[in-house]
Write a structure and sequence with these properties.
mainly alpha, globular, about 140 residues, DNA polymerase, domain 1, about 0% strand, 4 helices
Length: about 140
């Protein structure tokens, strides 16, 4: 059996000492996600809208974005509802945040774990993911 290269282990891990280093690394993650979306052929408009949603979510956090929890996503999406945004808009935002975290977990999870000790988790789950359908429908909704 041979050795296997693991993602995130080929370069020197960032030294995340101080608030500015954390902010710079958060920005790097968002930028790398935008680059990956571009490589996948997504439009500049879609990439820009997705980046704006991810940054909006990150600004709602009191911790670095890699420490976000389901409770953070719950609070963010509840605030979006209080602001009067439609179910489909909230579903789009939840999807954008979920996609970003899938990227971070897959490509940078090991790097973040080594640099901070934090295990990145997906904050969007089946309980707070908006269905995009009829309001009030979703996991655990009463079926009549």
């Amino acid at each position: 059996m041979g050795l296997v290269a693991l993602p995130g282990g080929s370069a020197v891990d960032p030294a995340l000492i101080g608030a500015q280093a954390v902010q710079d690394f958060e920005q790097e993650l968002v930028d790398q996600y935008a680059l990956a979306m571009s490589a996948a052929g997504l439009t500049d408009r879609h990439i820009g809208a997705t980046r704006a949603i991810v940054i909006e979510f990150a600004r709602s956090l009191s911790t670095p974005l890699w420490e976000a929890t389901c409770a953070d996503a719950d609070a963010f999406l509840a605030q979006q509802r209080r602001m009067g945004l439609s179910v489909s808009t909230r579903a789009g935002k939840a999807g954008a945040v979920a996609g970003f975290y899938e990227f971070v977990i897959t490509r940078y999870g090991g790097t973040i774990r080594r640099a901070t000790g934090a295990l990145v988790e997906q904050p969007i789950d089946e309980f707070n993911r908006q269905s995009g359908g009829i309001a009030g429908q979703g996991p655990g909704a009463a079926v009549g």
